[in-house]
Design brief:
single chain; 511 residues; alpha/beta; Rossmann fold; nine-stranded mixed sheet; seven-stranded mixed sheet; elongated
């Protein structure tokens, strides 16, 4: 059976009972008034999210509930909204979601139940339900209202909200909608916001920030004690078909959710030809695990398969170096790589720079690092932000270097199609032809890179926080290592993919 108790949760301040939690009344209301009993996990949850302080206010001003899809979130939201309207009689209950259609699902269910339940219907005035698009509202004779809105700068503004239901917080990619609705509770000392969602990715900035704060309190006791976390999720690193992990994320398994429904999909996605985006979707929606992004440019399984202890010391004299810079010019990375005797390319970072002076620091350190590594070729992608650091790279007096480039080093503009270089790295990783030692910086940038589509081709991008310049560095160095010319005794200046002598004995030229 699915787990009734969440894997991670905020402990109560005192023993919970009908006098210290309004959740017991929610359970009674659902079963004996609505005749829509809550499932066991929902009962456990409302008891804990309904915890009261000694002065009668809700212990939690914000509640974050993480649970996999199809476990009864809509039913829970409907019951809570009706309880707050007809039992506690709060003046304003407000529901939000990604768009009005999604926000309307629990609202429409609440309207239907209110009309069909005699005890509730008796307290509905004439024209209790207004369904005009953008003005959906359910009213009672006690002057309680349940309204809904989409996640935008208008949602909740101009209102004083007593109870807020936020569905799919994972879709909030900025604070615009959250600020508009949550701050409308500021003048309500008894206000409470309940956010119910499954896990998201790096773009889910509001969810990720609230979760981080709630987890800090759970693990250390520091921070906001009025921020509650109830996380039904699989533990990190679990197999897709781990039954204990699936039970932890899906509390209704064995009850309203069939095991073969989720296990069949899990086993199919464990096959070698499964698409990374499909696996990412399963992890977020069924295992309720955060992923870096939903449209990963690089297959995480392929990247992990390339983790092999070792370094580039055995490839001295056959190395390539590539530098790249983030679009905000706050991060830069220098990556080295070389083709191994078995045909695979090993990559590793040489140095990274961050902060306001990242580009200047790269320019300052670059001559010395190139002289130290002594690669066959040093390159950069001239069509991107690295151009800011590349000024003067073709000048023999680059940044005051005594001798630029060092003897035996070819300076290369990787002037081919950037999308081809990025897509080429994805193909190399899929083929298990890229080897690395598991450096955290490379892994974060490579697995955090998304596909930025340009018609039928794509390049790397990064949504939310973080950078992907190291991913471009890896892609560039794999491309350059595959296209290195034979070692020469004197420096040359070429454009990658433009010199026929450069492609001698190379693989993958022009990708």
């Amino acid at each position: 059976m699915g787990s009734i108790r969440p894997r991670v949760w905020t402990r109560p301040l005192r023993k919970l009972s009908p006098t210290t939690s309004y959740g017991y009344r929610v359970i009674h209301f659902a079963a004996h008034v609505l005749h829509m009993p809550l499932d066991p996990w929902q009962q456990w949850l409302v008891i804990h999210l309904g915890e009261l302080l000694a002065d009668g206010r809700p212990r939690f001003r914000q509640v974050l509930v993480l649970v996999a899809r199809q476990n009864g979130k809509t039913h829970l939201c409907t019951v809570l909204a009706l309880f707050w309207m007809f039992v506690e009689r709060w003046p304003m209950i407000f529901g939000t979601s990604t768009n009005l259609e999604q926000a309307a699902e629990p609202w429409e269910k609440a309207c239907e139940v209110a009309e069909e339940t005699p005890a509730l219907a008796a307290r509905l005035p004439r024209n209790a339900i207004r369904k005009a698009n953008g003005q959906q509202v359910l009213r009672t004779t006690d002057r309680s209202r349940y309204k809904i809105g989409a996640v935008n700068e208008k949602g909740g503004r101009g209102k004083s909200i007593d109870r807020l239901i936020g569905d799919e917080l994972r879709t909030h990619h900025s604070y615009v909608g959250y600020n508009a609705s949550y701050n409308a509770m500021n003048a309500r000392p008894n206000g409470q916001a309940v956010f119910i969602t499954n896990a998201g990715d790096d773009k889910s900035v509001v969810l990720n920030d609230i979760y981080a704060g709630a987890l800090t309190y759970v693990t250390s006791g520091a921070g906001d004690e009025r921020l509650g976390l109830f996380e039904y999720s699989a533990p990190p690193g679990c197999a897709l078909d781990d039954v204990h992990a699936l039970a932890a994320a899906n509390p209704n398994l064995g009850n309203r959710l069939d095991w073969d429904t989720v296990l069949g999909t899990a086993r199919r996605l464990m096959l070698p030809d499964a698409k990374p985006e499909a696996v990412a979707g399963f992890r977020t929606e069924v295992l309720c695990q955060r992923v870096k992004n939903m449209d990963s440019a690089i297959d995480p399984a392929g990247w992990e398969a390339g983790r092999v202890e070792g370094d580039l010391s055995g490839l001295r004299g056959r190395l390539a170096l590539v530098a790249d810079v983030s679009p905000d010019l706050r991060h830069a990375t220098l990556v080295a790589g070389g083709v191994m005797p078995d045909g695979r390319v090993r990559v590793e970072p040489v140095k990274a720079w961050s902060g306001l002076t990242a580009v200047a620091d790269l320019q300052r350190d670059l001559p010395g690092l190139v002289a130290l590594v002594k690669p066959q070729a040093f390159g950069w992608l001239p069509g991107g932000p690295a151009a800011a650091a590349a000024a003067g790279l073709k000048d023999r007096k680059y940044k005051g270097a005594r001798a630029w480039p060092p003897r035996g080093v070819t300076v290369v503009e990787i002037a081919g199609e950037v999308t081809a270089v990025c897509m080429g790295l994805a193909a190399e990783v899929d083929a298990r032809m890229v080897v690395h030692a598991g450096d955290p910086l490379l892994t974060d940038h490579v697995l955090g890179a998304e596909k930025l589509w340009r018609e039928d081709r794509w390049r790397f991008a990064r949504s939310g926080e973080g950078h992907c310049d190291a991913a471009y560095g890896v892609a560039g160095v794999v491309h350059l290592a595959r296209t290195l010319p034979p070692p020469l005794g004197a420096p040359r200046f070429v454009r990658a993919g433009k010199s026929s002598g450069q492609t001698r004995g190379a693989r993958g030229t022009g990708r």
